[in-house]
Amino acid sequence: MKIGFVTPSISRKGGGLLDAVRRIAQELLLLGEDVVVYSCEDEYSREDAALWRPVPLCLFATIGPSRLGYSAPLRKAVLEADHDVLLTNGMWHYLSAVAVQWHSRTGRPYMVNPHGMLQPWALAHSGLRKKVAAALYENRHLRNASCIRVLGEAEANAVREYGLTNPLCVIPNGVDLPLTQSKERNTPWPKTSLPPENKVILFLGRIHPKKNIPELLEAWRLVLSQPDPALQNWMLVIAGWDELQHEKKLKEQCQKLDLAKHVHFAGPLHGTAKTSAYANASAFILPSLSEGLPMTVLEAWSHELPTLITSECNLPEAFAANAAIKIGADRLSIAEALRSFITMSENERSEIARRGRQLAEMKFSWPAIAREMLQVLRWLNGDCVHPRSLTADSVASEPADRSPRLS
């Protein structure tokens, strides 16, 4: 099958999309499918293109606002390509309009992968811009999709609440499992040093308002205000890619809260630096307000780290399996969970970490996820019916109508 991927970025600037799209594309190629990826160039795409090998990449320059991603050459390349099916990734981007045009020209199916961008918080953030985009092209992109891939039940509910009736398939993100669980203490935080006796609670992800880091900092201040000797060797490390100049605000907040000695900003971590950070941390925390299915939690599990996450991370199976500690999104509940975690025994923490690793192994391996994706793509192409990943309300026995439909 000839499969085309369109994604806003193939670089680290895409955040979780880098691994989520890359690994599906690579695994489909390993399964013998003909895969091509179309994307926009940015300052890191040439460097990060090596991570995608051997997947063919078609990268194009853009004009205008980078967030929009307008590229006439990219549009031309996609419209002239001979693909059986197209997979779009993300929303609120010119690529959505390109997919609609490709569908109108070819009559062939495409799958939308929103990656959490239809969650209520995500819709409300920059709400006016998204309402304009929805009216111009995004609603048509969604309604014309032959299938919408969701990462879990919460995202499926968000899609239905948006008013969409397309067939849905539930296919989570995946993770590459480290072959060994080495806890050797390297230097995980480049350009700085932390005392070797420190135990690190790691946040790793985009430095963005939806990650709820201000509440985490307020919670950390509450935790440290307790006269408990067990707290003295704990450090909060915040690592990730800054967006919207949010990191500057967080650093100012740390100064006001007198947390400078207890919080370290590590900057973006990639490759071996990111792996070392996971290997040297004692726990992972994600107090997010909105996620599709966060890659960083899966990565933390794969490195056998105990995790503290909100319900908004959309991993209910983690709580059902006691593979993560549930935290609220406000400072008081985050602080309570942190205190409880720090006062646990090492055996209790290790058991949570072990269950997280086990869950990653059982449910989130990339080869298994790619096979599920291929079943759905074959269904879209008319080669099979009723893949296991289709949700109960996706009752169509045939792929969605391939003829263009007006929004």
Mean pLDDT reading? 89
Rg of Cα set: 21 Å
Helix content: 25-40%
Secondary-structure element string: EHEHEHEHEHHEHEEHEHEHEHEHEHHH
Structural domains: how many: 2
Quaternary assembly: single chain
Shape: globular
Structural class: alpha/beta
CATH class wording of the largest domain: Alpha Beta
Characteristic key phrases:
single chain, 407 residues, alpha/beta, Rossmann fold, 2 domains, seven-stranded parallel sheet, 15 helices, 13 strands, globular
Report on the structure:
The structure is a single chain. By secondary structure, the chain is α/β, with parallel strands linked by helices. 40% of the residues lie in helices and 15% in strands. The protein is built from 15 helices and 13 strands. The chain has helices at residues 17-30, 45-48, 72-80, 94-106, 120-124, 127-143, 153-161, 213-224, 246-256, 271-280, 295-302, 316-320, 331-342, 346-363, 366-380; strands spanning 2-7, 34-40, 57-60, 85-89, 110-113, 147-150, 168-170, 199-204, 234-239, 263-267, 283-286, 307-310, 325-327. The chain has a seven-stranded parallel β-sheet with strand order 3-2-1-4-5-6-7, with helices on both faces. Strands 10-9-8-11-12-13 form a six-stranded parallel β-sheet, with helices on both faces. Helix 7 (153-161) links the parallel strand 6 (147-150) and strand 7 (168-170).
